[in-house]
Amino acid sequence: MNVAAITPDDPMLPHLYRVTDVGKETPDTFTLTLKSTGRPNGSTFQPGQFSMLWVFGVGELPISISGDATEQDRLVYTVRSVGQATHALVSRRVGESVGVRGPLGTGWPKALARGRDVIVVAGGIGLAPLRPMIYEVLRHREDYGRLVVLYGARSPRDLLYRKELAAWARQGETQVLTTVDYGGLGWRGHVGVVTTLFKYARLQPERSLAMVCGPEIMMRFVTQELENQGLSRDRIYLSVERNMKCGVGFCGHCQYGPHFICKDGPVFSYLRIRPLLEKYEL
Amino acid sequence: MLAGDAMEVHGSGSDHGSAPAGILDAGGLGKLIELLLCRGYEVVGPTVRDGAIVCECVHSLADLPAGWTDEQGPGYYRLRRRDDPSWFGYSVGPQSWKRYLHPPEVRLWSAQRQGESFRILNNELPRRKYAFLGVRACELVAIARQDRVLIDDRYKDPIYEGCRRDLFTIAVQCTQAAATCFCASMGTGPRVDGGCDLIFTELAGSSGHRFVVETRSKLGAEVLSEVQVAPATGQDLQEARTAVDAAAQQQVRSINRATVREVLLQNFDHAHWDQVASRCLTCGNCTMVCPTCFCTTVEDASDITGDHAERWRRWDSCFTLAFSYIHGGSVRTSGKSRYRQWITHKLASWIDQFGSSGCVGCGRCITWCPVGIDITEEARAFQGGDHGNP
Amino acid sequence: METLERIIAEHPFFAGFDRGFTHLMVSCASNVRFAAGEYIFHEGDPADTFYLLREGMVAVEVPAPQHKPIVVATLGVGEILGWSWILPPFQWKHQARAVSDVRAIALDGKCLRSKCEENHDLGFEVVKRFARIIEQRLETTRLQLLDVYGARR
User: How distant is the Cα of C72 from the closest Cα of chain B, in angstroms?
Assistant: First the structure.
């Protein structure tokens, strides 16, 4: 029988990367910088994509790329330690190796965003997959309109990239607002869920495109608010999370209604997945 | 419908479909098995083991389940003696061919620690040369459906491809249906239209025990040319047609293919899901016996020194709690949501994902469900609407 | 008075408010300022005022013994601070602290209550606007309660 020629590239085989830096973002969240040992051009990616990261003898996890796509010699990941595998990942020391498959999945709609204002709404660790898009806008400032970043976290000490948030806020045509659910007395910023920031955001909904990532509940109320603000559903994009074992459409775990998060996502237009967001235990 | 499906199958040689049909006798079949073994094939065919007809390596006619048939119903399977010597006088057994093309357990690769780094070993891809003997129409379509998922999508599974690319397929058309069969309603059988190398129809009536043989590929024609084939008469062909038609007419179960997708998608919150869930044990048997279910998990194993690690891929089931786990908990905690995921994927979202149904109507999930949950009945419950909306 | 009337009319809370009503409110209004760190009101104090925030940020806090006060929400420009003046016992349930220098219009609750009693059209309009604010605050408080960024329990 005549089967198409075998692909030389086994999608389940990881590439070896060396940890070149580990930075602490919050008490439980770390940013790892990985460099390839002999994989030319292997580190190019689209903002919004993810990789499968493998730790020797422990396991493999889908992790969003949080670095700058113009830095093509490295892959950067921000990982929150919530279980055995993520703990093993953030415990890697400089010089140790990690297996990397990918970049995989769809990216944020860069082409669609060009010429428009970009509204980034992030919750918690959800800022990590959006950071490459923020870099993209800031590096190609003339290609985009205003950049508005609305970021909510649990408490002041859970805010990621605090120095960068401040630096972005100083850029032209850029507004960065942060809020926390629980503030202490020393916190001089906003307290309240991320949607309360919309009051302070200078938006031009008719010429904007919104990109949202965070816990699913948070994305549900953010998308409602974006619609209230006047953004149409096809101008709102979300990054969705589900269990993933292969990342390439074989294992079936990440099915989300008719979609596979790994190959059809993780970035989807709200127009496409809105009916699914409301379905419990889908 | 089947003709359309058959287009998905690799090597469906349309230019050989018109070769005249022949007649092969018992000796011819034995010779054919020998020839395939000589050509380096692992011949996999039906055989009796543990009270069931299973697909295993066969070496001669003696391995085939001559004179056996199966009796099936919801949660029921028994072998019975036939009153003729048919080798293929059964419907489908608990196993499907997927255990050969998409192995239940396979090592993806292993790795050896080297200081702070590691080296990946044993990642050579498997290459198998199988000849399947006795593939039913529904099973051929099932193979095509798995092809679509595993090698005709954006990424190709090299393990599946390594087992699939040299596959030689001898289809045997059903001449009787089990009580659990519903391929006629799914448009997947019992007639075989293509997607194989040879098509046999076994006839064991008064005119003698023999096969009507049709070729469907160049390789099929080549192999067949090495055994003695007599020309088929119009009467042989008529007898074969009548026998296959009977297998369609015997079917007592059906799914309304035209409406089932919409009905399932529109009834996500229907009260009937609780009713199914009260019976379903979430054991996952249906997913194991299903010839199209492809889900897998990947697990790590390391030796006691911690210097050697292996990645294993194993069949997984959407009925397990761990299947939908993301940090903090599983998405589908209730049994109802897991049954809903399975049947909705199979009969509805599979169509959105891959352009055809994930169900081929083989009925295995009905037979091997320990509590006899019947996919056709469950699908009908939503269509009937007499189970009450919440 | 004319400036105050304009400021009130332009505050988002009074968007689309009847001009006649705005005029009625002016006699209850005054300009106020609070320095960063200053308390605008404390829990249990008589609630006889509400504020239209014009500049700066205010933290609504719940004090607790052996504990720093817990900030439950922050309010900024264009928002309303305080609704305890509407219903008995007219006492503040929480405390409010100026996070930064704050400028606001204070509206005298007693004054406004009597005007609302006299003119139920005005009263209904004011209560509707407060109902919306209370609904929004309840909603965001519910979402905060979910603790969505923590690991799921």
Answer: 26
